[in-house]
Design brief:
alpha+beta, 13 strands, 34% helix, Outer Surface Protein A, domain 3, eight-stranded mixed β-sheet, three-stranded antiparallel β-sheet, 2 domains, 12 helices, ThiF family protein, Rossmann fold
Length: 373
């Protein structure tokens, strides 16, 4: 490990005294822990000082000045990395952090979470990402606030409507916003969550990294075709009736698209196009309990960050994460590429015997082999 890396121990990591000469680092709630048996007071001070703002060489120099053996400290840092308890930041990550003591405190917890599949920091990329949320809904605004609070640098919410009494939800639009333009009220909600987030839409000619479609039946929206043609990734996040849906997450040319899902629905129910036309004719009243809206927003934000960070394959690729009250346990409904769509070069052949059919649901208590209507 380079001495130029900046080690960060997440501030919430427990440092517990097991005895007068033994310190336990982490190891709570199933996480891997580490036992340190040398100079626990000095080591505690050292570890609490790992805020990511000093290069490892500076940490070792300060440890030596405090009477600790730099070689032992190097071994300790390596052991913490091996346990997944330490995050190594680069100079670009620090430059991407907002200035000021309040911003530093807010970012400290988020820095540790912004990692890719190898455990490397993705904070710099997250700060440089741009997300547009289409729809200042009871799901859309909390998603925008969560993404901004998680460090996404530019988050804008598009909506031409006016706030109604039913739009209010904790962490989103407030009761006092009734009568205000939704876009303005949504920007205020995002600003409350992350005051230094850039709330401007992408510059003319620039494309966002991700668009979140927060209206219940966005699949037939003309906007979707434009996103697909432009190669912009897009994620559905909404509550339909009482069911929260996060996904599909569409990466044009790579995953199935929203038209694929419509074609699978049509295969299962020939009347689906008639039903879809009625569902998309106009925005319905706000739906979903507050807890369902928030669970959906959280699931959608998780999928969005997994995509932006490259931390793994988001569950919503060619699939939908569904959450239904009262348990809100996530269930996965798969929507593979449809052979008649042509959106990818790898359109899936008909379902093989024993294989889950498109639209089937998996997860705790999920009915098997059923198509969403």
């Amino acid at each position: 490990m380079s001495d130029a890396t900046h080690p960060l121990l997440p501030p919430g990591t427990p440092l517990l005294r097991r005895s007068a000469d033994a310190l336990q680092v982490g190891g709570i709630d199933g996480a891997d822990g580490l036992l340190v048996g040398t100079a626990p007071d000095a080591v505690t001070t050292l570890l609490r000082g790992l805020d990511g703002r000093r290069a490892q060489r500076a940490v070792l120099a300060d440890a030596g000045a405090a009477g600790l053996d730099p070689g032992s400290v190097t071994d300790l840092l390596a052991a913490l990395r091996g346990a997944g308890a330490l995050v190594d930041l680069e100079a670009a990550d620090l430059l991407a952090s907002d200035a000021g003591p309040a911003a530093t405190v807010r970012a400290a917890a988020e820095l540790a979470a912004a990692r890719d599949g190898t455990g490397s920091s993705r904070w710099h990329a997250r700060r440089g990402a741009s997300v547009v949320v289409e729809g200042a809904t009871r799901v859309g605004v909390p998603v925008a606030a969560l993404l901004a609070a998680s460090g996404v640098g530019r988050v804008s919410v598009r909506d031409t409507g006016v706030v109604t009494a039913g739009d209010a939800v904790p962490g989103g639009l407030a009761a006092g916003d009734e009568g205000r333009p939704r876009a303005t009220a949504a920007a205020d909600a995002v600003r409350r969550a992350a005051p230094l987030t850039d709330l401007r839409p992408p510059a003319p000619g620039a494309l966002p990294d991700l668009v979140v479609l927060a209206r219940p039946w966005a699949a037939s929206d003309p906007l979707v075709a434009g996103l697909r043609d432009a190669g912009v990734a897009h994620l559905v996040a909404a509550v339909r009736g009482e069911t929260g849906v996060a996904g599909p997450l569409v990466v044009p040319g790579v995953t199935s698209c929203l038209r694929c899902a419509d074609l699978h629905r049509r295969d299962a129910d020939p009347a689906w196009p008639v039903l879809a036309a009625q569902l998309t004719a106009a925005d319905g009243p706000p739906s979903g309990a507050a807890l369902t809206c928030w669970a959906t927003a959280l699931a959608a934000a998780q999928q969005a960050l997994a995509y932006l960070d490259g931390s793994g394959s988001p569950a919503a690729l060619s699939a939908v994460v569904e959450l239904r009250p009262p348990d809100l346990a996530p269930r996965l409904r798969r929507w593979p590429p449809h052979p008649a769509c042509g959106c990818t070069a790898a359109a899936r052949p008909p379902t093989a015997p024993g294989e889950d059919a498109p639209g089937s649901v998996s997860g705790p208590g999920a009915p098997q082999g059923t198509m969403a209507r």
